[in-house]
Design goal:
By secondary structure, the protein is α+β, with helices and mostly antiparallel strands. It has 6 helices and 9 strands, in the order H-E-E-H-E-H-E-E-H-E-H-E-H-E-E. The protein has a 5-stranded mixed sheet, with helices on one face. Strands 1-2 form a two-stranded antiparallel ribbon. Helix 4 packs across helix 6. The structure holds zinc ion.
Length: 228
């Protein structure tokens, strides 16, 4: 009679889910890729917006498409910003919450690898920093692209779509809709009040020029992120 044996697949599953205890915390071998990246990112002062900014929404547009007509990020790409930028975002989101709104992030820390892909597609210095002039502040985790939504995540009309390279992208564009004008004013005033800089060419882009401590450019390779 054959002895009962454990199939290799079941054994592999047991090993992958076997918990081990470190410093009082239970962890799992083979945790999902996004969590692994977030853990590594902390060493570089980058933190997860989802974790650090309660009530915010994340919609990383470059997971779907980009000006290069293809995604720049794979699905495990987390939404990361510099630790001190996250604190400012937290304050901004709390202020916006009093008016019934929340932030929805379109892009945050951007690996230089993705920035180069974007430049190659757009090649317009008005919208993308040419690599010959250095990197975007996105690559340091201190710039963020975001829009407003209602506190429950319901979309609201704003001046343009993300990366719409037209007149409507300008940060002083108000168009003919008073609701849109009011919301974009609220967003810009709030972001300025917590220390972000508004730029002329894109209403959705904000810079944290006063981010404190350990700012450096970090590559996808540093964090073990695969590029598409
Ligand atoms: Zn941006």
């Amino acid at each position: 009679m054959n002895r009962p044996s454990i199939s290799p697949a079941i054994l592999a599953l047991a090993v992958l889910t076997l918990p081990f205890v470190t410093g009082g915390q239970t962890r799992f071998f083979g945790g999902d890729q996004e969590s692994q990246i977030i853990r590594k990112a902390k060493r570089y002062n980058l933190v997860s917006v989802k974790k650090e900014v309660p009530g915010s929404f994340i919609d990383m547009r470059y997971k779907i498409t980009s000006a290069a007509n293809k995604p720049l990020y794979l699905k495990e790409m987390p939404c990361l910003v510099h630790r001190s930028t996250a604190q400012k975002l937290k304050k901004a989101n709390a202020i916006l919450g009093k008016s019934g709104y929340a932030i929805k992030v379109w892009d945050a820390w951007r690996p230089p690898e993705a920035h180069h892909a974007l430049w190659n597609a757009v090649r317009d210095p008005k919208y993308v920093v040419p690599p010959s002039k250095g990197l975007s502040w996105h690559c340091y985790g201190i710039s963020i692209d975001l829009t407003l939504v209602k506190s429950d995540g319901t979309p609201v009309a704003m001046p343009s779509k993300f990366d719409e390279f037209s007149d409507r992208a300008a940060s002083d564009y108000r168009g003919g809709d008073p609701g849109i004008a009011e919301r974009v004013n609220l967003l810009q005033q709030t972001m300025r009040s917590v220390g972000f800089r508004v730029i002329e060419s894109e209403w959705w882009h904000f810079d944290d020029m006063a981010a404190q401590g350990g700012i450096r450019n970090i590559t996808a390779a540093d964090l073990g992120i695969r590029m598409p």
